[in-house]
Amino acid sequence: MTKAWRHWSLSAGLLCALLLAWDVDVLAAHGVAQDDARFFLTNVGAAIGPFMYLGAKHMFTGYDHLLFLVGVLFFLYRFRDVVTYVSLFTLGHSVTLLAGVLWGVQANSFIVDAIIGLSVVYKAFDNMDGFRRFLGFQPNTKLAVLMFGLFHGFGLATTLQELSLSKEGLVTNMLSFNVGVEIGQVLALMGVLIALSFWRTRGGFLKHAFLANACLMAGGFILMGYQIVGYLVNAS
Questions:
Q1: Which domain covers residue 165, as residue numbers?
Q2: Which of 8-17, 76-85, 172-181 is the least confident region?
């Protein structure tokens, strides 16, 4: 067994133990807190401030988004590259969030969230140079980030569709919610970039990069597994 594989196995085991120790509802990354759900259900008319707040809150609690973005930013050093990739993710996320809620585009939430988990696995595998090493090719990373961004937006849209939002002021509220999501994303990414920048100044960054991405991959597999089981149980 290679040293890298031992690191991966240890990381996966530790992360699995940590996640399994949590309440299983924590794995439902697009769950809505009771108070928030009550507001969504009872609100009538435009409420710009509250919807912006809830959008930002979603991004801070939407750890599936954050795990994916950590993977995307992990090896990005230039500010221009950060802006490019985050913009692609934002574009995809915004399109499907708005289309899903405003135009009623629907999909199975378990399948969508399983693909979101897959996005975390994909980016971690990409960061580990897995595609070149094991498959002999390198996918278009920008296109992948855009495509996965579409699924991340759809994941939240499927949750909001279940809440039967009032049609009165819906467009204003969803635009406000989306702006809040992007504000929350910027604030969260600032924290991620600060942490990564500090880590990169330490001598062990490259040494432990494989281990860190192994943890990301394990987390993505756990999210996928939870959603696949949910789909099978729901179907039965």
A1: 3-235
A2: 8-17
Segment 21-57, tens digit of pLDDT: 444 444 445 566 778 888 988 999 999 999 999 999 9
Answer yes or no: is pLDDT of 191 > 50.
yes
Amino acid at 32: V
Q: How far apart are CA 21 and CA 29, in angstroms?
A: 16
* 3-state SS, residue 1: coil
Which has the closest alpha carbon to 223: 93, 95, 62?
A: 62
Tokens of 125: 């595998």
User: How far, in Å, CA of 178 to CA of 55, rounded?
Assistant: 6
State the amino acid at position 109 in one-letter form. S
Q: What is the distance between the terminal CA atoms of the chain, rounded to a whole angstrom? A: 40
Under 8 Å between Cβ of 217 and 5: no
The full 3-state SS of 186-221, as one line of letters, equals: HHHHHHHHHHHHHHHCCCCHHHHHHHHHHHHHHHHH
* Total number of domains constituting the chain: 1
